[in-house]
Design a protein that fits this description.
Layout (H helix, E strand, L loop, with lengths): L5 E4 L6 H8 L8 E4 L12 H14 L8 E4 L3 H9 L6 H8 L8 H6 L1 H5 L4 E4 L2 E4 L14 H6 L14 E4 L10 E2 L3 E3 L4 H4 L4 E4 L6 E2 L4
Parallel strand pairs: 1-2, 2-3, 5-6, 6-8
Antiparallel strand pairs: 1-9, 4-5, 4-10, 7-8
Helix pairs in contact: 3-4
EC number: 3.1.-.-
GO molecular function: hydrolase activity
Keywords: Hydrolase
């Protein structure tokens, strides 16, 4: 059985038009889409968060209709902030943290209607020799012992030195000043600052036919 290629999609941040542009070459390709989190917040276009979420839900609910093997969405720090903000007794500081990070409060009714979906978002996925995660990992810590806060928030020391895991880590969360993809032997960073740069990265990766494993929440 052949393992499908994976198309990893960096931080969308409500850039609905860019998402459609980047999806187009991959629809009908038989690939699996893996969104690396941060679908929402800081949207540069009207109603961008809602449009992005509804498009992702549409693809995920019936990937075969769009010529895809599957659609996986990982949890980012912005999905985590939203989850905390929409709790029935959310502390003011949780709501403020979400709002001051580019949130649109008009999204709350839609998000509450899909709260169970947000709650089940996994932190990682493994496909072949690639580990997909939103932010990164803490170096020299086994994957099963990683703190979930690190998986969605970490920058340094992950960005500054090899992590020691037997995978190439594909991540978003941190973009470079030149908005380029970072390619190193131990990690590939594909957040290209879409909401600021106008560049959203969708990176196609060939996955060997052995070992496809999902790591859950």
């Amino acid at each position: 059985m052949t393992t499908p290629d994976v198309v990893a999609i960096g931080d969308v941040h409500g850039c609905a038009s860019l998402l459609e542009q980047e999806l187009r070459p991959h629809l009908g390709s038989g690939a699996e889409l893996i969104f690396l989190g941060d679908l929402i917040d800081r949207a540069p276009e009207a109603d961008g968060d809602r449009r992005v979420l509804e498009r992702v839900w549409q693809l995920q609910e019936n990937p075969g209709a769009y010529g895809l093997a599957a659609v996986t969405v990982l949890r980012g720090n912005h999905e985590q902030m939203l989850l905390k903000a929409m709790g029935p007794r959310a502390p003011d500081e949780d709501v403020e943290l979400w709002l001051c990070n580019g949130a649109n409060p008009d999204l709350l009714p839609l998000a509450r209607g899909r709260q169970a979906w947000f709650e089940q978002l996994p932190y990682t996925a493994i496909r072949g020799r690639y580990l997909f995660v939103h932010a990164g990992v803490r170096p020299q810590i086994r994957l099963e012992h990683q703190a979930t806060d690190d998986l969605i928030w970490i920058r340094r020391p992950f960005l500054s030195r090899p992590h020691g895991l037997p995978y190439t880590v594909v991540h978003g969360h941190t973009f470079r000043q030149d908005f380029k993809v970072t390619r190193l032997p131990h990690r590939i960073g594909i957040d290209t600052g879409a909401y600021e740069s106008g560049v959203l990265t969708a990176l196609r990766l060939e996955i060997p036919s052995f070992a496809t494993v999902e790591a859950g929440p």
